[in-house]
């Protein structure tokens, strides 16, 4: 069992994050003081907000639409996850070192909130792509992820209760998003929504191209949008985490041949409507009516 702790920095309890204790022991400090480069590309999200989808989009745009490499090298190798070394089994044993030592330009994925990111992020100012998603779809997706990827045995009701109480890993979600929303207009930050990618991927691809200083023809963009479609990502073994899921199941003594879970699961906006009970929905309504959101003048897209 993983032990979780509530992390704050400099006794400032107004900002906290729930993380495995092991993260504090092995990652917290080395991430805070890591060297950041101007040509790094970071994708930062609260988990389940469309991280993987955005990573493939960004990687392809930055790499001259290199389908050959994309179809042959796992996304987790091209765009590795930085924290949780040895906790999220299936990733390189020391994922921090793996990210740190990647040839430049480095592509780095993290779910850390603003206050736990490296100090140099705010002075060196690499390009950061942040993706937000509404908390109801995120919580449902996070529940399925916990159940299938981490062997969570609680009910959906238990999970939603813990989520709205900000007890799940990387919680609190509201603060995670609003702290980035406050700095969204910085020139090195691109703030995207899962819901916009779903409704008009072509437009979001163009936004990302513009941000990354890349130019492709409409024909190339159409092809990229097809490559990034739900069906294509779901069936793409380099992206859909089949490999990681198998390793995670084996590590926790479960039989991977019994797996019925797709990491690229439903990919819907509003899918929560079919999955949440009235009581769970109401709990999340309260969660969404958070004073911090008013303060940041932020509204979720449902
Ligand atoms: P669901 O569980 O709601 O289906 P992350 O990469 O941050 O863990 O996010 C995973 C979520 O993004 C999953 O949501 C997954 O289905 C969704 N997703 C991934 N690729 C997608 C795509 N091409 N179109 C729509 N949703 C996608």
UniProtKB/TrEMBL annotation:
Residues 39-291 form the Sulfotransferase domain. One of its GO terms (molecular function) is sulfotransferase activity. It comes from the Eukaryota. It holds the Pfam family Sulfotransfer_1. Keywords: Transferase. The keyword Nucleotide-binding does not apply. Signal peptide: none annotated. Gene3D superfamilies: P-loop containing nucleotide triphosphate hydrolases. The keyword Transferase applies. Belongs to the sulfotransferase 1 family. This is Sulfotransferase domain-containing protein. It comes from Chironomus riparius.
């Amino acid at each position: 069992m993983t032990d979780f702790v509530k992390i704050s920095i400099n006794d400032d309890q107004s900002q906290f994050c729930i993380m495995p204790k092991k993260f504090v022991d092995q990652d917290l400090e080395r991430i805070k003081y890591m060297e950041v480069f101007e040509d790094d590309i970071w994708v930062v999200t609260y988990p389940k907000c469309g991280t993987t989808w955005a990573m493939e989009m960004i990687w392809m745009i930055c790499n001259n639409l290199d389908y050959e490499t994309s179809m042959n090298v796992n996304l987790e190798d091209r765009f590795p996850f930085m924290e949780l070394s040895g906790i999220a089994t299936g990733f390189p044993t020391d994922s921090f070192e793996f990210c740190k030592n990647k040839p430049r330009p480095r592509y780095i994925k993290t779910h850390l909130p603003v206050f736990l990111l490296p100090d140099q992020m705010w002075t060196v100012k690499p390009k950061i792509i942040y993706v937000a998603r509404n908390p109801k779809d995120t919580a449902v997706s996070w529940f399925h992820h916990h159940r299938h990827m981490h062997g969570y045995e609680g009910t959906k009701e238990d999970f939603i209760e813990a989520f709205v109480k900000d007890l799940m890993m990387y919680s609190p979600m509201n603060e995670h998003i609003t702290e980035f929303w406050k700095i969204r207009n910085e020139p090195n930050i691109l703030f995207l929504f899962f819901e916009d990618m779903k409704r008009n991927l072509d437009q979001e691809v163009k936004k990302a191209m513009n941000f990354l200083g890349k130019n492709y023809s409409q024909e190339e963009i159409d092809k990229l949008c097809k490559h990034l479609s739900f069906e294509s990502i779901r069936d793409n073994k380099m992206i859909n985490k089949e490999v990681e899921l198998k390793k995670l199941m084996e590590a926790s003594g479960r039989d991977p041949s019994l797996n019925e879970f797709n990491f690229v699961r439903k990919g819907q906006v509003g899918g929560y409507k079919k999955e949440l009970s009235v009581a769970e929905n109401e709990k999340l309504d309260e969660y969404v009516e958070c004073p911090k959101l008013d303060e940041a003048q932020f509204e979720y897209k449902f």
